[in-house]
């Protein structure tokens, strides 16, 4: 089952274990410069609000409600990253294979959304090993930032791969580890203290309602190989959720709530002396980048082609303050 | 079962091992209490702080505020307000559900819908 708790999607799998699950929230963040450099990871500036989509009258977009799921406000050019959590200390950590789509283009493999899981190429991330995802997997060890753009203007990744597509939003599908495999894993881990999965990173009115995700600047982030193998995942008990990205300028009219403020600029962030981040897990192997995403144009490149000055100057460089984050681990044996 | 104070101390010290901004002094400063007071709370010498301070502390520790409030013997004011508006209904609901396992209770929590996509 999927529930909403404090602007977080909570996936639970009671058929596997009544006490375990994962949380996913969507962090507002700085839009990093698209300047040819590979930047460090930007901070989390708080969660985007999430609401049940069926609670609201979406006017001309009411047909989108047939997808179910949730609605989340973003301004054009807002950037986000996905933050993955377990459900709290003291609970066993259920490994989960997670597929993430942007307009039904798989953000990890670059392929069109398809049922199930694949390892050739890998089309999912594995939790808890993967603490977050900031963008599209364009190269080994490199992603391009998720940036919200209106549909119908050619900026989104899905429209570049399939010009007829207007799905938009974010799609998530989670497959838990099979019960028998998980029981073995739990038994082994009960001997050692639980591995900590601390993914907290220091944490126009007439515009179309629907948004999709385009590619922003490049940053260093690895997407890790599946250490368990395809047979470990329970494809019969997957859960999925469609997240509609609503233009934040219409959020107030639709929900009666104030939309979140646009994030501060890179300049303001640097002037406050705040850090950027680097995550390193030397025990895990990164997968290759998605070939299908290698030729996709960034939002900035599309805007230049169209001669549309949609973004302000990006001459500012992130400052040199980088905090390295290293996962806390316990030894892992055979099981 | 940990006391409120010992649980906070264990969690804070675990985070402080990797992040020196999680010292008693700095956490106290960020949540708006004196370091000496937070230290006493962690040693169970002083009672837990106010609801607002516990919520701020939960945010610092990456914990669920409802969990920390419950450990402090408190119920958040928004939940109290919900019950006060329909006291008989919610009192009866909670009594009916008190013996149910977690997964049974979760089935009556509103779920995120899934449709055609």
Structure in words:
The complex is a heterodimer of chains A (335) and B (117). Chain A has 335 residues and is mainly beta. Helix content of chain A is 10%, strand content 29%. Chain A has one domain (2-325). Chain A starts with a strand and ends in a 10-residue tail after the last strand. Mean pLDDT of chain A is 85; it is low at 191-206 and 330-335. Chain B has 117 residues and is mainly alpha-helical. Chain B folds into 2 domains: 4-71, 434 Repressor (Amino-terminal Domain); 77-106, no CATH class. In chain B, helix 4 (51-61) packs across helix 5 (65-71) and helix 6 packs across helix 7. Chains A and B meet through strand 1 and strand 16 of A and helix 1 and helix 8 of B.
Descriptors:
heterodimer, A: 335 residues, mainly beta, 16-stranded mixed β-sheet, two-stranded parallel ribbon, 5 helices, 18 strands, disordered C terminus, B: 117 residues, mainly alpha, 434 Repressor (Amino-terminal Domain), 2 domains, 8 helices, globular
CATH class of the largest domain in chain B: Mainly Alpha
Q: What overall form of chain B do the CA principal axes indicate?
A: globular
Gross morphology of chain A is: globular
Helix content of chain B: 55-70%
Mean pLDDT of chain A, as a whole number? 85
CATH superfamily of the largest domain in chain B: lambda repressor-like DNA-binding domains
When the domains of chain A are counted, the total is 1
Class computed from helices, strands and strand pairing of chain B: mainly alpha
User: Helix-strand pattern of chain B, N to C?
Assistant: HHHHHHHH
Tally of strands of chain B: 0
Average pLDDT score of chain B:
92
């Amino acid at each position: 089952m999927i529930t909403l708790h404090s602007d977080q999607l909570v996936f639970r799998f009671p058929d596997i274990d009544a006490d375990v699950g994962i949380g996913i929230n969507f962090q507002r963040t700085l839009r990093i410069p698209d300047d040819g450099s590979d930047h460090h990871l930007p901070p989390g500036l708080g969660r985007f609000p999430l609401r049940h989509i069926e609670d609201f009258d979406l006017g001309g977009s009411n047909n989108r409600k047939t997808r179910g799921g949730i609605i989340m406000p973003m301004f054009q050019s807002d950037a986000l990253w996905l933050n993955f959590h377990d459900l709290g200390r003291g609970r066993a950590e259920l490994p989960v294979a997670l597929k993430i789509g942007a307009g039904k283009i798989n953000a990890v493999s670059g392929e069109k959304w398809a049922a199930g899981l694949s390892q050739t190429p890998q089309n999912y991330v594995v939790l808890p090993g993967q603490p977050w995802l900031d963008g599209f997997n364009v190269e080994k060890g490199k992603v391009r930032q998720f940036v919200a753009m209106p549909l119908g203007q050619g900026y989104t990744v899905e429209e570049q791969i399939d010009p007829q597509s207007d799905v938009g939003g974010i799609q998530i599908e989670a497959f838990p580890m099979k019960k028998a495999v998980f029981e073995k894993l739990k038994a082994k881990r009960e001997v050692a203290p639980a591995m900590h999965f601390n993914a907290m990173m220091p944490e126009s009115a007439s515009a179309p309602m629907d948004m999709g995700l385009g590619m922003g600047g490049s940053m260093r982030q690895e997407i890790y190989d599946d250490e368990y193998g395809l047979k470990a995942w329970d494809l019969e008990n997957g859960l999925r959720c469609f997240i509609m990205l609503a233009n934040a300028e219409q959020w107030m009219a639709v929900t009666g709530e104030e939309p979140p403020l646009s994030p501060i600029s890179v300049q303001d962030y640097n002037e406050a002396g705040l850090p950027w981040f680097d995550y390193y897990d030397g025990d895990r192997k990164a997968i290759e980048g998605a070939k299908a995403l290698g030729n996709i144009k960034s939002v900035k490149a599309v805007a230049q082609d169209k001669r549309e000055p949609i973004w302000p100057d990006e001459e500012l460089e992130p400052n040199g303050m980088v905090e390295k984050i290293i996962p806390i681990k316990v030894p892992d044996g055979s099981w | 079962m940990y006391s409120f104070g010992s649980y906070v101390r264990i969690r804070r010290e675990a985070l402080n091992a990797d992040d020196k901004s999680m010292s008693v002094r700095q956490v106290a400063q960020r949540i708006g209490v004196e370091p000496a007071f937070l230290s006493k709370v962690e040693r169970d010498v002083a009672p837990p702080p106010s609801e607002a301070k516990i919520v701020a502390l939960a945010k610092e520790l990456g914990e669920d505020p409802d969990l920390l409030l419950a450990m402090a013997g408190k119920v958040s004011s928004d939940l109290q307000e919900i019950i006060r508006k329909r006291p008989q209904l919610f009192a009866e609901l909670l009594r009916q559900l008190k013996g149910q396992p977690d997964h049974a209770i979760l089935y009556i929590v509103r779920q995120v819908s899934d449709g055609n996509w």
